[in-house]
Amino acid sequence: MNSFKEHEIVWNDEKIKRIWDYYSSNVAYNDQYFGYRVKNILPQKILKYVGDFSCGLDLSCGRGDILSGFFKLIKSDQILYGADVSQKSIDIVKERFRNYENFGGALNVADIDDSCNEKFDFILVTEVFEHLSDDDIVSMLGLCYRLLREKGLLVITTPNTENLNRSKTLCPECGCVFHRWQHQQSFTPEGLTHVLEKHLYKTVTCQELCWGGLGVKILSFLHLIPRTNLLYVGRKI
Predict the structure, then answer these.
(1) Which end of the chain is more exposed for a tag (fewer CB within 10 A), N or C?
(2) Which domain CATH number covers 135?
(3) 185 in a domain, yes or no?
């Protein structure tokens, strides 16, 4: 019986878990992770805004690549935690950093409200918002607000004005059409700023940029390559 029928995917928690457990357990995808590509660049930029801190949280830690970049730069009394929706990623991070004195632990986003007693000076959420529904964005911003200390910083990265259709693919077996990286949203600088300010964050900066080394920065400055990424920093009101 032929059950093929072209249809758009309807993402739910189980489907999201399946695809990210697959990516996180497949070593061939290691260098495709955003964190892997910016692990030596993003922490330096973020620390310029964060300054001196005692406790921070990477709420989208994946396999821990960005954490590894931070651990090279921070002081011995500064503590970083990781959190993720994928238990496989959490297990990888726990094992990877179990002997690091700066590592506070790795938590599951689903139960972080109950399992974490810390309040954080900053929370980093990299390449997550584009994966969320509108309702999930509201829940995520509420979670960050609860976990941040007074006047703590929320740092967000997301693609800049992404054309979602360019990365969609079709399953030739069942006909399901889906974004290969599970993106559901596309943000402009103005749109992202509006969402954050509506949920009680005061904008420090919202930049269009292209992550990379000096050569990429020069090309981006001269507008010779598109600025495909957004960096948002907001302070809890």
Answers:
(1) N
(2) 3.40.50.150
(3) yes
